[in-house]
Amino acid sequence: MKGTIVKHSAKVAIAGVGNNISALTQGVRYYANLDAQGVPEADFPGIKRPRVDGLAVYDLDIVAAYDIDERKVGAEFNEAIFQEPNNYPRLGVEMAPIGVVVEKGFSLGEVTDDEVRRIAASLRDSAAEVLLYSLPTGLQWAATAYAEAALAAGVAFVNCTPEIVGRDEDILGRYVSAGLPLIGDDLASHIGTSVVHRSLLALFAERGISLSGSYQLNLGGNEDFRNLREQGASKRQSKLNALAQDGVPLDRVDVIPSAGYVPHLMDHKVAYLNLEGAGWANTPVEVDLKLRVQDSSNAAGVIIDLVRIAAAALRAQQKGFVAAAARLLKSPPMGHPAYEAADIEASFAALSPSAS
Ligand SMILES: NC(=O)c1ccc[n+]([C@@H]2O[C@H](COP(=O)([O-])OP(=O)(O)OC[C@H]3O[C@@H](n4cnc5c(N)ncnc54)[C@H](O)[C@@H]3O)[C@@H](O)[C@H]2O)c1
Predict the structure, then answer these.
(1) Are residues 151 and 225 in the same domain?
(2) Lowest mean pLDDT across 37-51, 88-102, 133-147, 334-348
(3) 218 lines ligand 1 (CB under 6 A)
């Protein structure tokens, strides 16, 4: 497909240069190398959509980045992604400098109008089209501050976390008034615990198995899991929102976002799922399942679609929530009926009616 790119790469600014971003940017380089070797996009492994509105998976330029960790602030972006405590593996692709130095982001207790103007000016100078918010879970003040800065800069916003931004009617309304896309909240992992759990719950319901109880336990060895031990409340609710998307009652379902931080697991997530119920003549049915995944690849495989959707929507002058993102999120702003009604393929086509 080389030589068929019809659109400029999506220009993306990053808030939070953590594991998700290491996975995203190393993966983008990996796919760019495949393209350079002449591998057809249809043969790229691990990709749902080779193109979104003409943008390939490797059509992504990082143009600005913000963090507060002193090991990352002031570093060249492609060095910052390898700084501890990031522990996503090296994919063996060359990550040459890209000319972006990580800038200091918002700090707790220091979010003033001047600070919002500083980040907004930096976003404008970088010509970013999208600000990708990927901070630790539980920092509602930070999510709001970055969303305000993106709004002031005229930049689309993507919220990877369970903090309430896309579901905040005031913020969403102001993005609509400004003619800007806003995509959130909380990305649904590529093959994560939520989508597997949700599918099994729906299968029980569809087959008429009476659910007596179900749970999921998640374990991991990255910063996200360390943080979720203490800050798991918004994540737990968001995971329950994801499970509710098929309309299955959740009164007997429990979710433990971080059942433990196990350092030697590094960036792997191990999840245990259990479903118990009754089948024919009240005889028992039990499913116990173990899932082991590269946690941040799971995020990157969806972020690549969210940022391309956001850039495409901005270019097509779509504003507010973008329906094409609905199934890629755990907690989209729309209620269940709208979600159920959303024709996802049509919403992708609507990103740009002229795109193939
Ligand atoms: N891995 C997945 O599949 C998945 C799925 C859904 C959501 N998420 C969410 O994505 C988010 C990011 O995950 P991660 O694994 O990359 O986390 P991480 O902890 O590796 O990275 C977070 C980064 O944000 C930085 N940061 C902290 N405060 C900041 C501030 N005020 N301004 C700028 N930067 C700041 C940290 O220094 C770090 O570099 C988490 O909230 C996680 O829950 C991940």
Answers:
(1) no
(2) 334-348
(3) no
